[in-house]
Amino acid sequence: MSEGRSRIWVVARVHGPDEGGVQTYVAQVAQGYARAGREVTVFAKSSAGPRRVVDGSITLIDVGPASQLGVYARLVIAMARAWAGGERPDAVHACTWRAAIPALPFPRPLIVTVHGREVGRPAGVAFRLMSAVLSHTARIVAVSDATRVLTLSRLPALADRCVAAWNGVVVPPQRAETGNAVPRIITVCRLVARKNVAAAVRAVSNCRAGGIAIDYAVIGRGEDEPAVREAVADGAVLAEPGGIAMTGYVGDEELAQRYRTADIFLHPQIALEGGAEMEGFGLSVADAMVQGIPCIVGRDGGPAELVRDGVDGLVVDGRVPSEIRAAVALLARDPVYRRKLGENARAFAVQNFCWDRHCRLALEGVIPEAQGNAPPVQEAVTA
């Protein structure tokens, strides 16, 4: 360890290049700690491992793919080797409660992030295991107030150690006006039932059938893809074919271009299973906001905290098709209103979605500030 610099272990069961929201979270939290002047060791698993990668103050120890129990065993072994080699941390940050399991043998303050559904769904033995793991924490970081409420509804005794801390964004340069003659709507997400993408497709199809010109792209893949494709096919019966595309997974460059040229972001998520299956934050929503794109989101879960209805986007009941359709029609027809909402969305995102602040809140009260001349925490991470 560099003299005077504290060390943080970040533990996760996933990592890039594999895709997913937790993978993004792991990478950004590690970078946030490094910017704050800390040495960071990430213990994780990905399809690219096993490998050891050193990038400045961040060391990635990737144990590679294995069975679930095999991954846990490899993580414990990797951490034990680091511990024996003198690379002992001041705190351990597990990026999910399950990722905290292999960290339990190491006597350091434990921070655990909860994202939403993974604390809402466990029952029986899984719930008892989750309760036992979280009872060993020094701090629980919920990525939204909705996630904190869900967590404490199940484990109220943990209220004194649970804090809500929004995720961050990487702030891109101010984008130019899209200049699209036909408004472009995008949805970017993993296609699962709670994202409610099939309902979004039907709302756009109904608007197009009513004479509103719209181009719509659904970007992502997942288990709900058949239902979304069925909705696209049904829409082709209502309106002229075309105008709605399913792109599947796209690379970073194409995704960035899609965000730069979009006029509206559509994400009418809903909660399922009595609220247990919910969207905890909505990284893609935050990414759209910081681009200056007005978002239409559902009332359930974290995204409804990010978007202020009528100020920087629209909040609808995702279970009411007419509300989604009306919101899409309103923004598609009114470019001036879209522009105003988008400007407000970017300003709000830049001010409120900060990875460095997230990391600071995670460590607050857990370990003293790092000694030495660590650089100041940034309030915005720019591209």
UniProtKB/TrEMBL annotation:
Domain Glycosyltransferase subfamily 4-like N-terminal, which positions? 20-169
Q: Which residues form the Glycosyl transferase family domain?
A: 183-347
Keyword check for Transferase, yes or no.
yes
Q: What GO terms are given for molecular function?
A: hexosyltransferase activity
* Keywords per UniProt: Transferase
Instruction: Give TM regions.
Output: none
Q: Which domain of life is it from?
A: Bacteria
Spell out the PANTHER family in the cross-references. SULFOQUINOVOSYL TRANSFERASE SQD2 (PTHR45947)
Q: What's the protein name?
A: Glycosyl transferase family 1
